[in-house]
Amino acid sequence: MSKTSKNQGFKLNYPVFLSAAITSIIIGVVMAISPEKTSDTLSSIQSWISDVLGWYYILLIATCLFFIVWLAFSKYQNIVLAQADEKPEFTFKSWVSMLFSSGIGIGILYYGAYEALDHYLHPPIQLANSAAQAREAMVMTFLHWGLHGWALYALMGVVLAYFAYRKKLPLALRSPLYPILKERIHGSFGHFVDGFGIIATLISLITNLGMGALLLYSGLTYLVDIPENQSVIIIIAIVMMIVATLVAITGVKKGISLLANINILLMIAFLLFIFFNGKSIFLLNGIVQNTGDYLSALIQKTFNVYLFESNDATGWMSSWTIFYWAWWIAWAPFVGMFVARISKGRTIKELVFGVMFIPLGFALVWMSIFGNTAIDLVMNSNATELATAMSSKPIENMLYELVMYFPFSKIIIALLIVIGFIMFLTPVDSGLVMISNLSAKELPEDAEDAPTWLRIFWSVIVTLLSIGLLFAGSFGAMQSAVVLCGLPFSVVLISYIVGLMKDLRENYS
């Protein structure tokens, strides 16, 4: 069947599409016109939320973790997320590859060599000695990249896949609310939930593009002599989005699956290079010790609000832990939708374990190797230039600064640029597919995703807003906006848990 005939059954959800598009453009214009005021306002709101609602984020993230782990071991664990006669759409290998790449975005490169070293050099609480400080730094890094965030992705994937494939509702953010709202999900409230999900995803994609452009630009400065101006960054961002759009329009099976497999191989190769050219036994011991320290401190660290510590400690928690929890929540809609999109035919237990152990395990090994390497260089190898760069250079430079202490640094930096580019592409591709599907009221029976023109439209919106914000210097404001999106969507998360439990008890008790 031709593409034209496939698109004949497509219906655009105009309330969702128009409200999300117009709101996103307004947000972008305001940030571009008044970057400093917008940034100050958003930062103030973010600080207020952290100070007043920090406890809420902590309880929410702990509840989601407990619930999804319980669900994976409960009597509902073997429920297949499909109809009785439907088989998994993707092979196990392809499914694992896409799970990996949908959740592990460019942030792991952006913060990989920076976060643990920053926690070591600028801790929330000064400990007795440098060794204790190093162990604490790794525990906090594991906390931010560990079980809690992946639990959110698993939760979103399960509830969306369950109501889409078991209950035959649309694969949309409104569908898990059916047990609570019934047919009202097709009205204004459902439009609001889907529209807000699009806005949160757009802001996340813009932030991802900004991080990717800065990371690639920084890498190029280590290889060639290029001018230090925003025009170069803008050109990089445009090229990145053109390639992302071309990949997105090829569809999930061809484009994203292929990139996911390439991505894994390149990242493993880079990780092994650092491992074998560094202190291999030291790094192995570090993985074991970091994991043990993290699991031992998991409950205490989860609920720690630095109640009797100084303002510096609470400020640190606001800038790091609460920021991460809100960040994970804001990214959960589109990552969760993509996880659901590729998980038809999997059981609840299979999806939860797949999300929470495969990409999680790699993320923790990555952060352990790079975090321990950076801390060891500063603490035991007198790497003063690396320590100085922490305060004198942007975050996106830190990975390249670390690589400069290894052989073949220029070649490795070139490889990192390629890895960073691919790592940027995979979440953007999945995000464009998902927001396009959310914009649809109805998809043709023989089409799994929205038509190409809609993905191109949203790609253009992301590109134009990113260019405007980078020119205006509003990238920091956009990062704050991502965090703020996490607050209203947290209410939706709670509703998802309630709705899923209500339906499971009614149908499987």
Number of strands: 2
Estimated share of beta-strand residues: under 5%
Mean pLDDT: 85
Helix percent reads over 70%
Shape summary = globular
As a whole number of angstroms, the C-alpha radius of gyration is 22 Å
What's the level 1 CATH class?
Mainly Alpha
**Strand order, biggest sheet?**
1-2
What can you see in these coordinates?
This protein has a single domain (3-508), classed as Amino acid/polyamine transporter I. Helices cover 78% and strands 1% of the residues. The protein contains 20 helices and two strands. The chain has helices at residues 3-7, 14-33, 35-73, 92-103, 107-112, 115-121, 130-145, 147-166, 178-181, 188-223, 230-248, 252-277, 280-302, 311-341, 348-380, 384-392, 398-403, 409-438, 452-472, 475-508, and strands at 11-12, 440-442. The chain has a two-stranded antiparallel ribbon with strand order 1-2. The relative contact order is 0.21.
Q: What are its keywords?
A:
two-stranded antiparallel sheet; 20 helices; Amino acid/polyamine transporter I; 509 residues; mainly alpha; 78% helix
Short description:
This protein is mainly alpha-helical and 509 residues long. The chain has 20 helices and two strands.
Topology:
Layout: H1 3-7, E1 11-12, H2 14-33, H3 35-73, H4 92-103, H5 107-112, H6 115-121, H7 130-145, H8 147-166, H9 178-181, H10 188-223, H11 230-248, H12 252-277, H13 280-302, H14 311-341, H15 348-380, H16 384-392, H17 398-403, H18 409-438, E2 440-442, H19 452-472, H20 475-508
Antiparallel strand pairs: 1-2
Helix pairs in contact: 2-3, 2-10, 2-19, 3-8, 3-14, 3-15, 3-20, 4-12, 4-15, 6-7, 6-15, 7-13, 7-14, 7-15, 8-14, 8-15, 8-20, 10-11, 10-14, 10-18, 10-19, 10-20, 11-18, 11-19, 12-18, 13-15, 14-18, 14-20, 18-19
